[in-house]
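Q: How do we represent a protein-ligand complex in a form that can be generated token by token?
A: Start from the inputs.
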Amino acid sequence: MRKKTLSIQCNICGNEIFLYVKFGKGHLIRCWKNKIIKDNSIKEGKHVKCQCGNIIGIDNSVFIKIKKQNINIK
Ligand SMILES: [Zn+2]
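Then emit the structure tokens for the protein with zinc ion bound:
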């Protein structure tokens, strides 16, 4: 299977929030927690935020449902 390492960044301040290993094709909708290899996010209840306060996702226990409109993927 194709494997890619993605840098998931805040689209307000540009900070890297996750370094994430993605398998296979298709759009990134969920970040499975066991595939996050670097985590710079802040958790506030179910909200997953950048250090600048931008909400980048919602914690769903085993994965984070990301808010595509608030991030850049590189
Ligand atoms: Zn930010």
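The pocket of zinc ion is lined by residues 10, 12-13, 15, 50, 52, 54 (CB under 6 Å). Residues 3-73 form one domain.
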